[in-house]
Design brief:
heterodimer; A: about 240 residues; alpha/beta; Rossmann fold; 7-stranded mixed sheet; B: about 240 residues; 2 domains; two-stranded antiparallel sheet
């Protein structure tokens, strides 16, 4: 069995709102990337479970898959068993990644796929506790970067020199290569996206405050009006109105 | 010794500098925490002395033993008890996931500000925060902390209490479980990306389509008399955050 066979007849471990069995999978291009870049000498990890899990099984990597969904694992295992795809080299962990990852022992990883929980802040937890285990030049794949929560991680990594952008498929799945250790432990002053993104920024080794707060909200509102900063003014008014 | 005395003569644990919460936020802690409370903070500074003054059973986590020593010495010299404080000189990212905590009355997030530390601090403490308990997020003027603030402002399990000098935001926890929700149950993630969750369906942004559907939804809100929701949507549009 190869990747084409899998794409033509995928497993369906997920359910839609009506309870119908479906598959939520990576883009075929991203599955192809895994298929071409992983072999049985590799160690890999993913959060979430689906077509990607079968691709890792096909390639024979020592794989860890983490998802709090035992039924998804059973469907995936049955699918593989029925097609003669070994899964004995896969460690299925049926727990939330947020609980498992902080203390999980794995060998150095060649590839990490983050495609588990997409609620805030799960993708960041998945990244933080796996990034240190990923080898230099290892690959990180982020799925669903069209979602706000995943997009933030993608945007952060795009500007972080420790990570090299490799490709993005369908504006949905982004692949990075790790170039240096330690980016997850840096303070904000050493993280370009953070250092430039807020009202307080770190520029040329100095703290720069965009608009120093004035004495009162009325004064600040007047300041916004005077400066033509209507967007900021509207945001503040909105907050005041809906605070109640 | 009271908070005014501390503010006039603050400790300087950060290489001789004071890096503290806004005065108003310190007052908030001083007025809302008692010696019956359990509290936790990431980071160390003026706030730690304020918690010591209140006598709360306090946990402070910062990977900086020297800051702890300066703070302890400051308190000892002024007769402020610290025996009820658990000083943990480790990174919060390592300690919090397995730390055994009591039910907390207040959590202050003011430790590492690099991405994604504030979110980890939040995730691994809020499950222990009581309903009605307070969460204080400092330095929301930084991009990393602002994201957490913006997320919580829209999350119905949290009530916005106050923001001081556009820097320190105070929330009150209304319900448990927001940290475990999927993106479809989180208003900002559900509406903030190119892929949205609208009326129980995943919707991908397409030029023009989102505007038309937004107008349709706004008309629906108007018809249903749902003025608060409509107002929020208009505000988001005006502020460009949609």
């Amino acid at each position: 069995m190869n990747l084409s066979d899998l794409l033509n007849n995928p497993p369906k471990p997920h359910e839609d709102a009506q309870g119908t069995s479906i598959v939520w999978g990576l883009t075929p291009a991203a599955l192809g990337f895994i298929y071409e870049n992983i072999d049985d000498q590799c160690t890999t990890l993913e959060t979430g479970c689906g077509m990607s899990t079968v691709v890792f099984a096909l390639k024979g990597s020592r794989h860890t898959v983490i998802a709090p969904a035992p039924s998804e694992f059973e469907i995936t295992k049955s699918y593989c068993r029925e097609r003669g795809i070994p899964t004995s080299q896969i460690n299925f962990i049926a727990e939330p990644s947020q609980t498992i990852l902080p203390n999980l022992e794995t060998g150095p990883l060649d590839l990490v796929l983050i495609d588990g929980g997409h609620g805030f802040p799960t993708p960041y937890i998945d990244w933080f506790y796996t990034a240190g285990k990923l080898k230099k030049d290892g690959f990180l794949i982020l799925d669903d970067v069209g979602l706000w929560s995943c997009q933030i991680l993608r945007d952060f990594l795009l500007e972080q020199p420790h990570w090299e952008f490799v490709t993005e498929h369908d504006e949905r799945t982004t692949i990075f290569r790790k170039k240096e250790e330690g980016s997850e432990w840096l303070e904000w002053t050493q993280q370009p996206r953070v250092a430039r993104g807020g009202k307080v920024r770190w520029v040329d080794g100095q703290l720069v405050v965009d608009a120093p707060p004035q004495s009162g909200s009325f004064d600040r509102a007047l300041g916004d009006l005077r400066n033509g900063d209507f967007q900021s003014l509207a945001r503040k008014v909105g907050r005041r109105v809906f605070r109640s | 010794m009271n908070l005014n005395d501390v503010l006039k003569d603050p400790p300087r644990p950060h290489e001789g500098n004071v890096m503290g919460l806004t005065e108003a936020a310190l007052v908030f802690i001083y007025e809302n925490v008692t010696n019956e409370c359990n509290t936790l903070e990431t980071g160390c500074g003026l706030s730690t002395v304020t918690f010591a003054l209140t006598g709360s059973r306090h946990t402070v986590i910062a990977p900086a033993p020297s800051e702890f020593e300066v703070t302890k010495t400051y308190c000892r010299e002024r007769g402020i008890a610290t025996s009820q404080i658990d000083f943990i000189p480790e990174p919060s990212q390592k300690v919090l996931p397995t730390l055994d905590l009591p039910s907390l009355d207040l959590v202050l997030i003011d430790g590492g500000h690099g991405f994604p530390t504030p979110y980890l601090d939040w995730f691994y403490t809020v499950g222990k925060l009581k309903k009605g308990g307070f969460l204080i997020v400092d330095d929301v003027w930084l991009w990393s902390c602002q994201i957490l603030r913006d997320f919580l402002i829209e999350q119905p399990q949290w009530k916005f209490v106050e923001e001081y000098r556009e820097r320190t935001t105070v929330f009150q926890k209304l319900e448990d479980g927001s940290e475990w929700l999927e993106w479809t149950e989180q208003p900002l993630p559900a509406r903030g990306g190119k892929m949205k969750w609208i009326d129980g369906k995943a919707v991908y942004d397409q030029p023009g389509a989102s505007t038309l559907s937004a107008v349709k939804r706004a008309l629906g809100d108007l018809k249903d008399g749902n003025f608060k929701v409509l107002g929020e949507k208009i505000s988001r549009r005006v502020t460009g955050s949609d």
